[in-house]
Amino acid sequence: VQLQAFGGGLVQAGGYLRLSCAGSGRTFTRDTMGWFRQAPGKERDFVSAINWSGDTYYASSVKGRFTISKDNAKNTVYLQMNSLRSEDTAVYYCAADRDSYFYTRDMRQYDYWGQGTLVTVSS
Predict the structure, then answer these.
(1) Which residues contact 93 (CB under 8 A, 6 or more apart)?
(2) DSSP string, 42-82
(3) How far apart are CA 79 and CA 70, in angstroms?
(4) How far apart are CA 34 and CA 52, in angstroms?
């Protein structure tokens, strides 16, 4: 079972990026999928999640700027990030909470993790 996150890069403040997280080895249709991020020297924090029925959840710091979505046919979840700020600079990780309808911000509840993709926002 594998999650592969990609789409990170260097972008100017105010710009946008779209992260993708492709799953393989099992179907993630019945999972809650989440995005977390870890800035240098800081703990890993919750960013967003989407449950298997399509309900979405966001950290207050990204609400209104980021949008999570998924394509079950492609077994892929996305994070559209707009109006990026320097404080969004971090390694972004995708994760799957297996067979879970109710989302959680607790990273310990997630069963599978991607390798992370670096997002750098220059001011």
Answers:
(1) 5, 35, 36, 37, 38, 44, 113, 114, 115, 116
(2) S-EEEEEEE-TT--EEE-TTTTTTEEEEEEGGGTEEEEEE-
(3) 9
(4) 11
Residues 6+ apart with CB under 8 A from 59: 45, 46, 47, 48, 105
- Of the candidates 22, 53, 13, the one whose C-alpha atom is nearest the C-alpha of residue 117 is 22
pLDDT in tens, 1-43: 899 999 999 999 999 999 999 999 999 989 999 999 999 999 9
Handedness of CA 8, 43, 28, 71 (dihedral sign): negative
Identity (one letter) of the amino acid at 89? T
Let me know how long the chain is. Answer: 123
- In the predicted model, is pLDDT for residue 107 greater than 90? yes
